[in-house]
Every structure is written in C-alpha cells, then in structure tokens.
Amino acid sequence: MAKIVTLGEIMLRLSPKGNDRFVQAEQFRIIPGGGEANVAVSVANYGHDAYFVSKLPKHEIGQIAVNALRRYGVNTQYIARGGDRVGLYYAETGAAMRPSKVIYDRAHSSIAEADASDFDFDAIMEGADWFHWSGITPAISDKAAGITKLACEAAKRHGVTVSVDLNYRKKLWTSEKAISVMRSLMQYVDVCIGNEEDAHMCLGFKPDADVEGGKTDAAGYYNIFKGMMKEFGFKYVVSTLRESFSASHNGWKALIYDGNDFYESKRYDIEPIIDRVGGGDSFSGGLIHGLLTKKTQGEALEFAVAASALKHTIPGDFNQVSVEEVESLAGGNTNGRVQR
Prior knowledge:
Blueprint: E1 3-7, E2 11-15, E3 29-33, H1 35-45, E4 49-56, H2 60-71, E5 79-81, E6 88-92, E7 101-105, H3 121-125, E8 130-134, H4 136-140, H5 142-157, E9 161-165, H6 175-185, E10 191-193, H7 196-203, H8 222-232, E11 236-246, E12 249-257, E13 262-264, E14 268-270, H9 279-293, H10 297-311, H11 323-330
Parallel strand pairs: 1-4, 1-8, 2-6, 4-5, 8-9, 9-10, 10-11
Antiparallel strand pairs: 2-3, 6-7, 11-12, 12-13, 12-14
C-alpha cells in the first residue's frame, strides 16, 4: 500500500452527552480529532502507511492526541513536541431543526506557533506517494501557512501527489484572507476537494446552486469545475453535495471532474445522523484510497461517498470502517442487517 502524509492540527473535542446543550452539560467527553488527522486514520484503516505531521506539547494532554493516532495505526514519528497547549473545540450535537454548534478554543496552540525548523519536510516526503492538507492549517496562523507552503514544495520536489480539502472556516479567517493565501498554494495541488462554500470563499468560484435552499444540482458545478481546472491545472476537481433537510437528516453525494468527463455518484439518504463531524474528512480519506487503488474516477468517487456516508453513523471524529464495509455499501448493501 501507499505512504500517505497529512499535515495539520489535531485537537481535543469536548462534547456533552447525546444531544445535550452546552449549558446543560455537567461533564464533557474528550474526543481527539482534526481534519488531516481524521484523514490519516481513514487511510490507515484502509491498510496504507499513514503519517501525521504536527506539533503537540510534551505534557500528558498532548500525549492524549498522540496515543489516539497510534491506536488506529497512524505513524506519529514526525510529530514535533513542544509548545504550551493543545487546541480545543466544543461541539454540541443538534437534532431536527436545531443545528449543531462548534466553539473554538485553539489560539496559540503548538502547531499554530510551530517553526519551520520543527520539520524536515524532505525527509518526511522521501518515499511518499501522497500528501494531503486542508485549508484549516494555513488558516490557524501565518506561521502555519508558511509551513504548509514548505511541505507542498517538498512534496513536489519528491514527485508526491498533493491533495487539498479547501475546508473554509469563517471563525478562523475572512474570505479575503483565505483567497490571498489559498490561491497561491493551488500551484502545488493535483486534487482539489471542496464543497460549494469552500470553492467560493477560498478561491472565488461560486457555483450556480441554492445551497441554503437545499438545491445542489450537480449541473450547477460544471462551469466552476472547468474554470478551476483551467486556472490551476488540477488533475481532479471534486465536490461533495450535501442536502441539509435537518441536523438529523441529510442527502449526500459527490461530483468529480478529470478535465474530460464529469461523474456524479449515487445519492445516500442519511437519517438519523449520529455524528457528522469528520464527514468531509472521511470523504477525503476515501477518495485518496480510491484514486490510488481503483481503475476509474467513478469507482474512486463511489468509494469515497460510501465511506463518508458510513461516517455519519459513527460517533467521534475518526471514521472507523474497513475497506470491506465501504465496498459493501458502495455495492448496494444498505439494509443494515446484523452481520453474524
């Protein structure tokens, strides 16, 4: 299998039990996770050699995050140790018409204040097949943005395929700042992943789709996919298409374009949603595995969509599913019967 490297911040998620609101909570569950860490766990579950690159404090709270990755087979040798804190975020799980809510407490985390000297990216990218990052990493600080660029440059020197999940977060930066940083990083990217908001807020491409109204017709994405491909020279442009009927009920599919053909996946009706945090990351992990192992872009996309549909049924940030489980769903087995 492939050597896959991801770079980013792993945080500790603090969540009330069940669907409790923050103000009701008397205790919080600690759940490690973060965009690129979630992808690393996914590809490790699929049998790849997954490496997560970050910086965490030397103390025991930092070790919680390291241990969580090791538990699921992710190689942590390139995690620098130092700094003062692990980023936190609080997540309240919504239901029906009440949306989920996230509150960040991640300022001045170790990775946000990391220096280029903390990482030897040429050594890290040696022998790698794939490098993945997301727009969250350069958003957390200017220093992290500089480290992301260094990692991308090293990946290109070593002939590594680079993917990005645009992953716009309005609580971390403005669209103007995102566009100024992200567009300059697209020169290193082979596979661009993002939804309609990401493409608009990070790159300035707006699809013809009524997202708030739940109308995500794939045809509305064709022109911006072509425009993105032409401007940045991507090998693939990919978008998830989420229909949000409520916090507990979503429609889920995706679209991929390779410069010649568009492929739209089958649609999944997901109800009830157990936990949608990490849903996009599970899609990215599934897509990376699919593009590395499947014969066609359509097969790769179907694997990714099925993987992310399954993630919505699993508590926590990590997608804890096997290749066999994903392929069973992608093949049409949706009855949920007990496996004996």
